Amino acid sequence: MRTMAKAFTICATSWLLAVSSGVAVASAQTSGAQDAAPSGFASGAEVQAQLREMLAAMKPDQGFMWRPLVRDGASVAAIEIWKKPGRPAVHPAEAEYAIVLEGSGTLVSGGTMADAKVKNANLVEGSQIEGGATRTLGPGDVILVPAGVPHWFGITGERLVLLGLKLPGAK
């Protein structure tokens, strides 16, 4: 089962990176530009190395760390490490897509966010989500939270590790 989850994660990650870069995989393979490292690719070994580096860099009381893994202009796929739950959030103009790489947790999404406070143009935080749907998260799970939908990640083990990407919301 774990092998299937890893294979699914690799396939889903490849799809995510191809879509986020706006470049078809076939055209990248036939372009002849083999000498420059692509900005939209990280091997499984590179993903694991970055995860190890991030875990080593986290302070004992630090609950969250985010670090870009691959990018194509403004599009960034990043590793997120959650050791403590954050605040409920809404991204008004961006959908949030993520794949659980390791660990376990809970996603609460939908419903209404209480005590909403605008942090910046891309982030509204609140104190809790009322009436949202609760889902258990584990390795290989895929998450897509539409733009404007409240969501919150809880941690049920030592940590929850996501590969996350923000996507422009529907217009």
Task: Describe the protein.
- It is a single chain.
- The protein has 171 residues and is an alpha+beta fold.
- It contains three helices and eleven strands.
- Strands 1, 2, 4, 9, 10 and 11 form a six-stranded antiparallel β-sheet that branches. Strands 3-7-6 form a three-stranded antiparallel β-sheet, with no helix packed on it.
- A hairpin with a 2-residue loop joins β1 (64-72) and β2 (75-82).
- The chain is globular.
- The chain starts with a helix and ends with a strand.
- The model is unreliable at 1-38 (pLDDT under 50).
Summed up:
This protein is of the alpha+beta class and 171 residues long. It is built from 3 helices and 11 strands; from the N terminus they run αααβββββββββββ.
SSE map:
Layout: H1 2-21, H2 25-30, H3 44-57, E1 64-72, E2 75-82, E3 89-90, E4 94-109, E5 112-114, E6 117-120, E7 123-125, E8 128-130, E9 133-137, E10 142-145, E11 151-168
Antiparallel strand pairs: 1-2, 2-11, 3-7, 4-9, 4-10, 4-11, 5-8, 6-7
